[in-house]
Amino acid sequence: MDTAIDAQFGPDHFVTAQMMRLNAGTGDLQWVNAGHPAPMLIRDHHVIGALQGHGTLPVGVGGATPLINSTQLHPGDRVLAYTDGLVEEHTTGGEQFGEERLIATIERVAPASATVQQMVRDLSYTLMRERGGITTDDATLFLIEWRGGTADHLTRPLL
């Protein structure tokens, strides 16, 4: 990926990214973080903490081969990946929205959200309201949930 971005855009451009692989059968989550805040682990509607691991430089600037981080999810765990624009936003002269306010918002919204889709939608709307509708940087949310067991519910039988 580094080579492709560098070849297409040159040395003055880069891309931040988070890449994840979830084994739907076992709950083993692997990820590489290239320039974003660490994803948050949410269990029973509470933020357990950030998924700690090795980070790497943004894609396109070279550097060492990224180290793959890994953790074992429990059934029902949710993982929220987000961009720094979500927590770094601030009003003119005001303080940044911050990670503590993000965690408080997650824990307020999560119990009322039955599905992943509903939680990320509710979280997005709530964050926009709490930030006064201001977004001057990218503010992206990506939420996954591991239910445990097989991933059979994700496929449809062929007729």
TrEMBL record:
<dbReference type="InterPro" id="IPR036457">
    <property type="entry name" value="PPM-type-like_dom_sf"/>
</dbReference>
<protein>
    <submittedName>
        <fullName>Serine/threonine-protein phosphatase</fullName>
    </submittedName>
</protein>
<dbReference type="GO" id="GO:0016791">
    <property type="term" value="F:phosphatase activity"/>
</dbReference>
<dbReference type="InterPro" id="IPR001932">
    <property type="entry name" value="PPM-type_phosphatase-like_dom"/>
</dbReference>
<keyword id="KW-0378">Hydrolase</keyword>
<feature type="domain" description="PPM-type phosphatase">
    <location>
        <begin position="2"/>
        <end position="147"/>
    </location>
</feature>
<dbReference type="Pfam" id="PF07228">
    <property type="entry name" value="SpoIIE"/>
</dbReference>
<dbReference type="InterPro" id="IPR052016">
    <property type="entry name" value="Bact_Sigma-Reg"/>
</dbReference>
